[in-house]
């Protein structure tokens, strides 16, 4: 299996290579792709050194798989060129997510939709993945009507520049700003750019992507996305109104039985999900599960996951694993 990793030296790309190695993904030849200034430099993967190549050289090598973590514009420009060469692309950017001809995949939920004809496959937004992982089994059982979500998102979701800004501010050093305001000791109700309706792109991803993943527009999602000064891991406060009533014990049992979800929900022992404990893990953690006492059939819960792993790299590798296991590449 020849595989190209586009954006191999970036924040997600680095984690992607780590996850590929940890999960022992079958690779005979790795084609790490990065910016022009990195071409010729070496990276180490599975104790072997690989030279970074240009994106043109990676296409010419005709790998079976290419995993993109290099931003939307790069994906729009180059993913079709890989696809034309016969390569299956798994894209981490937002470029193809809402394209009606492209599948938006969380393997535990809808990988069975994939076919050999799917040459560009979209990885959902990091906040969407952890949200839908918890919502999907509950929707199947109780039928969602409306979801209200507030996110508390790590600076790592913005990238290296944002992490550096926070570290500089913590050290009292002036430096380049990724955000319009300080992030240390602050909370910014501003993730991604604002759209004409007053919501940010991140908030609209959370509104639109779950409907596509679940192939269902009968429920609605409204979101407020907030950036907080944590180094890794996204947290979400989620309020879900269902058509049908539920039992809290059954909710916990349903979530507990989902592969990839860990329920952490015991107020007596202060057990609940936190980003500090989700770091470097692939699970989606769910806790603070309780009934909304202000209206019927409504649930509150708290969802946490490592945004660079299950929120990006691990989900992409799981898609790749599914393609290989089912001989779709």
Describe it for me?
It is a single chain. With 329 residues, the protein is an alpha/beta fold. The chain folds into two domains: 2-124 and 312-325, Rossmann fold (3-Layer(aba) Sandwich); 127-307, Dihydrodipicolinate Reductase, domain 2, CATH 3.30.360.10. The protein is 33% helix and 23% strand. It contains ten helices and 14 strands. The chain has helices at residues 11-22, 55-60, 72-84, 107-110, 126-142, 160-171, 201-213, 248-256, 275-278, 309-325; strands spanning 2-6, 29-33, 42-45, 48-51, 65-68, 88-91, 103-104, 120-122, 144-153, 220-227, 234-242, 261-263, 284-291, 298-305. The protein has a six-stranded parallel beta sheet, sandwiched between helices. Strands 10-9-11-14-13-12 form a six-stranded mixed beta sheet. A two-stranded antiparallel sheet has the order 3-4. α5 (126-142) packs across α7 and α5 packs across α10 (309-325).
Structural class: alpha/beta
Strands of the biggest beta sheet: in what spatial order? 2-1-5-6-8-7
Give helix % range.
25-40%
CATH class of the largest domain: Alpha Beta
Q: What is the CATH architecture descriptor of the largest domain?
A: 2-Layer Sandwich
Shape call: globular
| Mean pLDDT over all positions | 97
Q: Tell me the domain tally.
A: 2
Could you name the CATH homologous superfamily of the largest domain?
Answer: Dihydrodipicolinate Reductase, domain 2
